[in-house]
Amino acid sequence: MKQVMDNFHHQTQQRFHEHEERTIKNREKCKEQCEQDIQKLILKEKIQKELTEKLSALQIDISTHDIPTCVCEKSLADKTEKFCLKCGYGLGGALTSWEIFGYTGIYGWANYAAVLAHEAGVKAGIKVVIDMFSDIPSLSRFTGFDLTKMIDGTNFNVPMEIVKVVKGLSTKLCGSSKINSFCHFPDMNNGKSLLEFANSASNAGIAQASSVQGSKVQFIKTTVADLSYNMIVSGITILVIVLVMVIIYLILRYRRKKKIYINALLFYILNYTILSNTMGLNIKKIYFFRTTNIM
Asked: Which NCBIfam families match (predicted)?
Protein backbone atom coordinates (compact mmCIF):
# COMPACT_ATOMS: atom_id res chain seq x y z
CA MET A 1 0.00 0.00 0.00
CA LYS A 2 2.82 2.33 0.79
CA GLN A 3 4.49 1.55 -2.50
CA VAL A 4 1.28 2.38 -4.37
CA MET A 5 1.01 5.67 -2.58
CA ASP A 6 4.61 6.51 -3.40
CA ASN A 7 4.08 5.77 -7.08
CA PHE A 8 0.96 7.91 -7.18
CA HIS A 9 2.75 10.73 -5.45
CA HIS A 10 5.72 10.48 -7.79
CA GLN A 11 3.53 10.51 -10.91
CA THR A 12 1.51 13.42 -9.63
CA GLN A 13 4.64 15.49 -8.99
CA GLN A 14 5.97 14.63 -12.41
CA ARG A 15 2.75 15.75 -14.09
CA PHE A 16 2.69 18.99 -12.12
CA HIS A 17 6.30 19.62 -13.09
CA GLU A 18 5.54 19.08 -16.80
CA HIS A 19 2.50 21.33 -16.57
CA GLU A 20 4.61 24.02 -14.93
CA GLU A 21 7.18 23.84 -17.75
CA ARG A 22 4.51 24.12 -20.44
CA THR A 23 2.96 27.05 -18.61
CA ILE A 24 6.30 28.86 -18.44
CA LYS A 25 6.94 28.30 -22.16
CA ASN A 26 3.49 29.54 -23.16
CA ARG A 27 3.89 32.54 -20.89
CA GLU A 28 7.19 33.45 -22.57
CA LYS A 29 5.65 33.11 -26.03
CA CYS A 30 2.70 35.28 -25.07
CA LYS A 31 5.04 37.84 -23.55
CA GLU A 32 7.13 38.03 -26.73
CA GLN A 33 4.02 38.33 -28.88
CA CYS A 34 2.63 41.05 -26.67
CA GLU A 35 5.89 42.97 -26.83
CA GLN A 36 5.89 42.74 -30.62
CA ASP A 37 2.28 43.89 -30.83
CA ILE A 38 3.00 46.77 -28.49
CA GLN A 39 6.01 47.83 -30.57
CA LYS A 40 3.94 47.72 -33.75
CA LEU A 41 1.20 49.78 -32.21
CA ILE A 42 3.69 52.33 -30.89
CA LEU A 43 5.38 52.56 -34.30
CA LYS A 44 2.04 52.93 -36.10
CA GLU A 45 0.88 55.64 -33.74
CA LYS A 46 4.18 57.49 -34.09
CA ILE A 47 4.03 57.37 -37.90
CA GLN A 48 0.39 58.47 -37.96
CA LYS A 49 1.11 61.31 -35.58
CA GLU A 50 4.09 62.58 -37.58
CA LEU A 51 2.22 62.25 -40.89
CA THR A 52 -0.71 64.16 -39.43
CA GLU A 53 1.61 66.93 -38.26
CA LYS A 54 3.39 67.11 -41.62
CA LEU A 55 0.19 67.07 -43.65
CA SER A 56 -1.53 69.63 -41.46
CA ALA A 57 1.35 72.00 -42.08
CA LEU A 58 0.79 71.87 -45.84
CA GLN A 59 -1.11 74.61 -47.62
CA ILE A 60 -4.41 73.24 -48.88
CA ASP A 61 -5.85 76.35 -50.57
CA ILE A 62 -4.09 75.71 -53.88
CA SER A 63 -5.88 76.37 -57.17
CA THR A 64 -5.05 75.13 -60.62
CA HIS A 65 -3.44 78.50 -61.41
CA ASP A 66 -0.90 77.98 -58.64
CA ILE A 67 0.41 74.79 -60.20
CA PRO A 68 3.62 75.57 -62.09
CA THR A 69 3.63 74.71 -65.74
CA CYS A 70 6.65 73.39 -67.54
CA VAL A 71 7.37 73.53 -71.25
CA CYS A 72 9.70 70.64 -71.90
CA GLU A 73 12.05 71.35 -74.76
CA LYS A 74 13.25 68.22 -76.50
CA SER A 75 16.95 67.64 -76.65
CA LEU A 76 18.96 67.13 -79.81
CA ALA A 77 19.11 63.39 -79.12
CA ASP A 78 15.31 63.17 -78.87
CA LYS A 79 14.87 65.13 -82.09
CA THR A 80 17.44 62.96 -83.85
CA GLU A 81 15.74 59.80 -82.60
CA LYS A 82 12.36 60.95 -83.89
CA PHE A 83 13.88 62.06 -87.21
CA CYS A 84 15.64 58.71 -87.69
CA LEU A 85 12.41 56.84 -86.98
CA LYS A 86 10.40 58.90 -89.48
CA CYS A 87 13.19 58.77 -92.04
CA GLY A 88 13.47 54.99 -91.68
CA TYR A 89 9.72 54.56 -92.20
CA GLY A 90 9.70 56.90 -95.19
CA LEU A 91 12.73 55.43 -96.92
CA GLY A 92 11.52 51.88 -96.26
CA GLY A 93 8.20 52.62 -97.97
CA ALA A 94 9.97 54.49 -100.76
CA LEU A 95 12.33 51.55 -101.31
CA THR A 96 9.43 49.12 -101.64
CA SER A 97 7.56 51.40 -104.05
CA TRP A 98 10.76 52.09 -106.00
CA GLU A 99 11.47 48.39 -106.49
CA ILE A 100 7.90 47.42 -107.38
CA PHE A 101 7.03 50.28 -109.74
CA GLY A 102 10.58 50.56 -111.09
CA TYR A 103 10.89 46.95 -112.22
CA THR A 104 7.29 46.94 -113.45
CA GLY A 105 7.99 50.03 -115.57
CA ILE A 106 11.29 48.67 -116.89
CA TYR A 107 9.91 45.34 -118.05
CA GLY A 108 6.75 46.95 -119.38
CA TRP A 109 8.87 49.33 -121.43
CA ALA A 110 11.07 46.42 -122.57
CA ASN A 111 8.06 44.46 -123.86
CA TYR A 112 6.67 47.51 -125.65
CA ALA A 113 10.09 48.31 -127.14
CA ALA A 114 10.42 44.70 -128.35
CA VAL A 115 7.10 45.03 -130.20
CA LEU A 116 8.29 48.29 -131.79
CA ALA A 117 11.58 46.65 -132.77
CA HIS A 118 9.69 43.83 -134.47
CA GLU A 119 7.54 46.33 -136.36
CA ALA A 120 10.64 48.31 -137.42
CA GLY A 121 12.27 45.12 -138.68
CA VAL A 122 9.17 44.19 -140.68
CA LYS A 123 9.03 47.68 -142.24
CA ALA A 124 12.71 47.48 -143.19
CA GLY A 125 12.18 44.04 -144.77
CA ILE A 126 9.17 45.26 -146.75
CA LYS A 127 11.17 48.24 -148.01
CA VAL A 128 13.98 45.98 -149.23
CA VAL A 129 11.54 43.68 -151.07
CA ILE A 130 9.79 46.66 -152.71
CA ASP A 131 13.15 48.11 -153.74
CA MET A 132 14.08 44.82 -155.39
CA PHE A 133 11.02 45.05 -157.67
CA SER A 134 13.00 47.65 -159.62
CA ASP A 135 15.19 44.77 -160.86
CA ILE A 136 12.26 43.29 -162.80
CA PRO A 137 12.71 44.18 -166.51
CA SER A 138 10.57 47.11 -167.78
CA LEU A 139 8.34 47.23 -164.67
CA SER A 140 9.28 50.85 -164.09
CA ARG A 141 7.58 51.82 -167.36
CA PHE A 142 4.16 51.03 -165.90
CA THR A 143 2.24 53.37 -163.62
CA GLY A 144 -1.00 53.19 -161.70
CA PHE A 145 -0.05 50.56 -159.13
CA ASP A 146 1.19 50.80 -155.52
CA LEU A 147 3.51 48.05 -154.29
CA THR A 148 3.20 49.20 -150.65
CA LYS A 149 -0.41 47.98 -150.69
CA MET A 150 0.59 44.63 -152.21
CA ILE A 151 3.65 43.84 -150.05
CA ASP A 152 3.02 43.79 -146.30
CA GLY A 153 4.16 42.00 -143.17
CA THR A 154 2.30 38.81 -144.03
CA ASN A 155 3.87 38.10 -147.44
CA PHE A 156 7.23 39.89 -147.75
CA ASN A 157 9.07 36.85 -146.38
CA VAL A 158 7.10 34.19 -148.32
CA PRO A 159 8.48 33.53 -151.87
CA MET A 160 5.24 32.08 -153.27
CA GLU A 161 3.31 35.13 -152.10
CA ILE A 162 5.78 37.36 -153.96
CA VAL A 163 5.27 35.19 -157.08
CA LYS A 164 1.52 35.74 -156.78
CA VAL A 165 2.07 39.51 -156.53
CA VAL A 166 4.21 39.55 -159.72
CA LYS A 167 1.72 37.44 -161.64
CA GLY A 168 -1.12 39.65 -160.47
CA LEU A 169 0.73 42.73 -161.72
CA SER A 170 1.36 41.01 -165.07
CA THR A 171 -2.31 40.17 -165.47
CA LYS A 172 -3.41 43.67 -164.44
CA LEU A 173 -0.89 45.67 -166.48
CA CYS A 174 -0.39 43.52 -169.56
CA GLY A 175 -3.77 41.95 -170.10
CA SER A 176 -3.76 39.85 -173.27
CA SER A 177 -0.97 41.86 -174.96
CA LYS A 178 2.69 40.97 -174.48
CA ILE A 179 4.26 44.13 -175.86
CA ASN A 180 6.47 44.75 -172.80
CA SER A 181 9.31 42.57 -171.61
CA PHE A 182 7.79 42.57 -168.12
CA CYS A 183 4.81 40.74 -169.53
CA HIS A 184 7.12 37.84 -170.52
CA PHE A 185 9.00 37.83 -167.17
CA PRO A 186 6.67 35.42 -165.31
CA ASP A 187 7.06 32.83 -168.10
CA MET A 188 10.80 33.22 -168.68
CA ASN A 189 12.78 29.97 -168.28
CA ASN A 190 9.52 28.18 -167.41
CA GLY A 191 9.03 30.46 -164.41
CA LYS A 192 12.49 29.85 -162.92
CA SER A 193 13.48 33.50 -163.24
CA LEU A 194 10.40 34.61 -161.30
CA LEU A 195 10.98 31.99 -158.62
CA GLU A 196 14.62 33.01 -158.24
CA PHE A 197 13.56 36.65 -157.92
CA ALA A 198 10.97 35.77 -155.28
CA ASN A 199 13.49 33.71 -153.27
CA SER A 200 16.16 36.40 -153.40
CA ALA A 201 13.65 39.14 -152.52
CA SER A 202 12.22 37.23 -149.54
CA ASN A 203 15.70 36.29 -148.28
CA ALA A 204 16.85 39.90 -148.56
CA GLY A 205 13.73 41.09 -146.71
CA ILE A 206 14.19 38.50 -143.95
CA ALA A 207 17.88 39.38 -143.58
CA GLN A 208 17.17 43.11 -143.37
CA ALA A 209 14.31 42.60 -140.89
CA SER A 210 16.48 40.36 -138.69
CA SER A 211 19.35 42.86 -138.82
CA VAL A 212 17.20 45.85 -137.84
CA GLN A 213 15.28 43.95 -135.20
CA GLY A 214 18.47 42.39 -133.78
CA SER A 215 20.20 45.75 -133.37
CA LYS A 216 17.16 47.25 -131.65
CA VAL A 217 16.70 44.20 -129.41
CA GLN A 218 20.37 44.42 -128.41
CA PHE A 219 19.88 48.09 -127.57
CA ILE A 220 16.81 47.18 -125.49
CA LYS A 221 18.74 44.48 -123.60
CA THR A 222 21.61 46.87 -122.89
CA THR A 223 19.23 49.57 -121.69
CA VAL A 224 17.31 47.13 -119.46
CA ALA A 225 20.57 45.85 -117.99
CA ASP A 226 21.75 49.39 -117.24
CA LEU A 227 18.42 50.36 -115.69
CA SER A 228 18.32 47.16 -113.63
CA TYR A 229 21.86 47.79 -112.40
CA ASN A 230 20.96 51.36 -111.44
CA MET A 231 17.84 50.08 -109.68
CA ILE A 232 19.87 47.55 -107.71
CA VAL A 233 22.53 50.10 -106.74
CA SER A 234 19.88 52.64 -105.73
CA GLY A 235 18.00 50.01 -103.72
CA ILE A 236 21.16 48.93 -101.89
CA THR A 237 22.02 52.56 -101.16
CA ILE A 238 18.57 53.27 -99.75
CA LEU A 239 18.69 50.04 -97.73
CA VAL A 240 22.04 50.99 -96.21
CA ILE A 241 20.68 54.43 -95.30
CA VAL A 242 17.62 52.82 -93.69
CA LEU A 243 19.81 50.42 -91.69
CA VAL A 244 21.99 53.30 -90.49
CA MET A 245 18.89 55.25 -89.44
CA VAL A 246 17.50 52.22 -87.59
CA ILE A 247 20.80 51.62 -85.79
CA ILE A 248 21.03 55.28 -84.74
CA TYR A 249 17.39 55.16 -83.56
CA LEU A 250 17.99 52.01 -81.50
CA ILE A 251 21.13 53.45 -79.90
CA LEU A 252 19.40 56.72 -78.97
CA ARG A 253 16.33 54.85 -77.73
CA TYR A 254 18.49 52.63 -75.51
CA ARG A 255 20.30 55.66 -74.10
CA ARG A 256 16.99 57.43 -73.44
CA LYS A 257 15.51 54.38 -71.68
CA LYS A 258 18.67 54.00 -69.62
CA LYS A 259 18.59 57.69 -68.64
CA ILE A 260 14.92 57.42 -67.64
CA TYR A 261 15.68 54.34 -65.53
CA ILE A 262 18.60 56.05 -63.78
CA ASN A 263 16.52 59.18 -63.08
CA ALA A 264 13.67 57.08 -61.71
CA LEU A 265 16.09 55.16 -59.50
CA LEU A 266 17.66 58.37 -58.18
CA PHE A 267 14.21 59.86 -57.57
CA TYR A 268 13.17 56.79 -55.60
CA ILE A 269 16.34 56.83 -53.50
CA LEU A 270 16.00 60.57 -52.85
CA ASN A 271 12.37 60.29 -51.76
CA TYR A 272 13.19 57.30 -49.58
CA THR A 273 16.02 59.23 -47.90
CA ILE A 274 13.89 62.35 -47.35
CA LEU A 275 11.04 60.30 -45.89
CA SER A 276 13.39 58.52 -43.52
CA ASN A 277 15.02 61.75 -42.34
CA THR A 278 11.77 63.69 -41.82
CA MET A 279 10.13 60.94 -39.80
CA GLY A 280 13.15 60.22 -37.68
CA LEU A 281 13.06 56.56 -38.61
CA ASN A 282 16.09 54.54 -39.53
CA ILE A 283 16.19 51.65 -41.95
CA LYS A 284 16.17 49.07 -39.17
CA LYS A 285 12.85 50.27 -37.76
CA ILE A 286 11.20 50.37 -41.19
CA TYR A 287 12.55 46.91 -42.00
CA PHE A 288 11.30 45.63 -38.63
CA PHE A 289 7.90 47.17 -39.27
CA ARG A 290 7.60 45.54 -42.69
CA THR A 291 8.78 42.12 -41.47
CA THR A 292 6.39 42.12 -38.53
CA ASN A 293 3.49 43.00 -40.85
CA ILE A 294 4.41 40.14 -43.14
CA MET A 295 4.64 37.74 -40.21
From this structure: RIFIN
Contacts within 8 Å (CB) and 24+ apart, 286-294:
288/39, 289/40, 289/43, 292/36, 292/39, 292/40, 293/40
pLDDT digits (tens, 9 = 90+) for 204-252: 888 888 888 888 888 888 888 888 888 888 888 888 888 888 888 888 8
Helix, strand counts (H, E) of the chain: 6, 0
- Rg over CA atoms, the chain: 55
124 part of a folded domain: yes
Burial per residue of 205-241, b for 16 or more beta-carbon CB atoms within 10 angstroms, e otherwise: bbebbeebbeebbeebeeeeeebeeebeeebeebeee
For residue 275, CA distances in Å to 48, 68, 283, 294 come to 13, 23, 11, 21
Whether 277 is covered by a domain: the verdict is no
Give dist(CA 240, CA 252) in Å, integer: 18
Q: Domain tally for the chain?
A: 1
Cβ neighbors of 245 (< 8 A, separation 6 or more) are 84, 85, 87, 88, 91
pLDDT of residue 147: 78
Residue 109 to residue 224: CA distance in whole angstroms = 9
Q: 227: domain range?
A: 103-240
- What is the amino acid identity at position 293? N
Q: How confident is the model at residue 72 (pLDDT cuts 50, 70, 90)?
A: low
Length of the chain: 295
Q: Is residue 70 part of a domain?
A: no
- The answer to whether position 196 is within a domain reads yes
CA 264 to chain centre: 35
Of the candidates 242, 263, 261, 241, the residue with the CA atom closest to the CA atom of residue 253: 261
Residue type, 230: N
Q: Which residues neighbour 103 within 8 Å (Cβ) at sequence distance 6 or greater?
A: 228, 231
**Cβ of 82: how many Cβ atoms within 10 Å?**
13
